[in-house]
């Protein structure tokens, strides 16, 4: 078995913006793929990179950037049972991803390339809608053509199912004869998404199924000219030549065209290939707990993203800033269950030390058990809401909704909660959010109720900016205008 992760640091893609999403992808190659490539691991890695580059180019149209963060080669033997039944192979691969791949090689999504031919002409399999989940974010793909673009399109298609896309039908608008989510493959590689695919994607995003995709990868497998990510040794990278529309970058060798000062970054003017002027806004504040950033006139990249110091009081004074966000028990209930939802009675939270499906402090994916809250942390565990409507955040297919009723005097209290699988790297939105108030001068952080002072004292600003500014997470003051 070979696992390649010779990753290098990257900068933001030139087309990226605040709404961009990033898929950290691992491609797994079965043993026959290794054999068919003359047992040459470098050939398998190179082919995987080419597939990922094409998939990335197709998803760039949707403001999604696919970054190859790892290639796995089963060089000794297949590590799962492969079957001509595509569903069985998919189930086996998803189990392998959960048990072996994710712990060793964290990823948002994994795709298997196999030489196995599935029954009934099927060239790929994936489940619909679980892109961010620990349980189901992956697909299996038959290496059905020597034309690499056709195999890459199959991978893009199966990844599309993970994003919640269905197969195209007659009502879908497509600029070509076939689009990427066509129900059957063809001898030519489709290059566009249908109107239906875009609608399905927008719906999934509106349900929060992009939560694990908001962080740009710190490194990718490379350097690779043509993957769309600026890496060491490159002056620019606008992706594959046939998709590059950057007038400042030469896609053949990832160098700047003659006379260009830059070709990427939010402080680069692509229309002139010049660095933008000092003090031009390059990153807006996303909340009251964030600060805007401005170009410095010398770099094409926006300065480091800083934000209001964790522990700063915010909202209606029942929450504290944490990692750019201002979230309370009440606001999180509304996010999950709609505008009329509210936080439930304190009695619901007092039962969180039980550690069962309804009352807990989270879920342990490794041993599949619910975690008990410490007695002092019960307000930072499972979030309990009332006056709820239908679940408005998270796909119900990857959620477990629970309701308990507690008797208080002569009335019944509703404790409605939800467990949403968004992967092991993100806190379940069904838990109390970080920054929520859990007592006098106390706030929730990582399911613990801690003193606000213990957070404010980290990288504290001198004299609290003299009361005439805002302290950021690096301990620097931003003066009031």
UniProtKB/TrEMBL annotation:
Residue pairs linked by disulfide bridges in the UniProt entry = 132-212, 172-196, 174-179, 282-302
- Gene Ontology MF terms: metal ion binding; metalloendopeptidase activity
Coiled coil, from the record? none
Q: InterPro entries from the entry?
A: ADAM_Cys-rich, Disintegrin_dom, Disintegrin_dom_sf, MetalloPept_cat_dom_sf, Peptidase_M12B, Reprolysin_adamalysin
Domain Peptidase M12B, first and last residues per copy: 21-217
Positions annotated to bind Zn(2+): 157, 161, 167
Name the GO terms of the biological process aspect. Answer: integrin-mediated signaling pathway; membrane protein ectodomain proteolysis
Protein name, entry field: Disintegrin and metalloproteinase domain-containing protein 28-like isoform X2
Organism equals Dinothrombium tinctorium
């Amino acid at each position: 078995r070979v696992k390649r992760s010779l990753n290098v640091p990257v900068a933001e893609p030139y087309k990226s913006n605040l709404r961009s999403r990033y898929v950290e992808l691992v491609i797994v190659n079965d043993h026959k793929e290794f054999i068919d490539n003359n047992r040459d691991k470098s050939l398998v890695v190179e082919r995987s990179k080419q597939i990922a580059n094409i998939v990335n180019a197709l998803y760039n149209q949707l403001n999604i950037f696919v970054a190859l963060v790892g290639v796995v080669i089963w060089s000794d033997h297949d590590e799962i049972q492969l079957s001509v039944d595509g569903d069985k192979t998919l189930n086996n691969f998803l189990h392998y991803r959960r048990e072996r791949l994710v712990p060793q090689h964290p990823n948002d999504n994994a795709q298997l390339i196999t030489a196995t031919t599935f029954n009934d002409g099927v060239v790929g399999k994936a489940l619909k809608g679980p892109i961010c989940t620990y349980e189901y974010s992956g697909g299996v793909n038959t290496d059905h053509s020597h034309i690499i673009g056709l195999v890459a399109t199959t991978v893009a298609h199966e990844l599309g199912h993970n994003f919640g896309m269905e197969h195209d039908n007659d009502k879908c608008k497509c600029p070509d004869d076939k689009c990427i989510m066509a129900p059957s493959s063809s001898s030519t590689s489709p290059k566009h998404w249908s109107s239906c695919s875009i609608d399905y994607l927008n719906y999934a995003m509106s349900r929060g199924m992009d939560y694990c995709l908001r962080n740009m990868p710190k490194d990718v497998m490379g350097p690779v000219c043509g993957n769309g990510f600026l890496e060491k040794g490159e002056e620019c990278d606008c992706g594959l030549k046939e998709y590059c529309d950057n007038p400042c970058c030469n896609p053949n060798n990832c160098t700047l065209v003659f006379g260009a000062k830059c070709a990427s970054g939010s402080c680069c003017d692509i229309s002139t290939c010049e660095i933008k002027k000092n003090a031009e806004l390059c990153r807006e504040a996303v909340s009251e707990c964030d600060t805007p950033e401005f170009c410095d006139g010398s770099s094409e990249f926006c300065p480091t993203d800083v934000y209001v110091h964790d522990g700063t009081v915010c909202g209606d004074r029942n929450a504290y800033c944490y990692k750019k966000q201002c979230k309370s028990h009440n606001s999180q209930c509304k996010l999950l269950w709609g505008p009329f939802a509210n936080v439930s009675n304190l009695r619901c939270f007092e039962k969180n030390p039980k550690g069962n499906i309804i009352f807990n402090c989270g879920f342990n994916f490794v041993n599949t058990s619910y975690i008990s809250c410490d007695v002092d942390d019960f307000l930072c565990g499972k979030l309990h809401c009332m006056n709820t409507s239908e679940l408005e955040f998270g796909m119900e297919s990857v959620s477990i909704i629970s309701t308990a009723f507690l008797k208080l005097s002569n009335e019944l209290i509703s404790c409605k909660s939800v467990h949403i699988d968004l992967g092991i790297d993100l806190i379940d939105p069904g838990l109390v959010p970080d920054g929520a108030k859990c007592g006098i001068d106390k706030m929730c952080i990582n399911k613990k109720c801690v003193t606000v002072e213990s957070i404010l004292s980290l990288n504290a600003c001198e004299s609290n900016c003299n009361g005439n500014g805002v302290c950021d997470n690096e301990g620097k003051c931003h003066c009031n205008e």
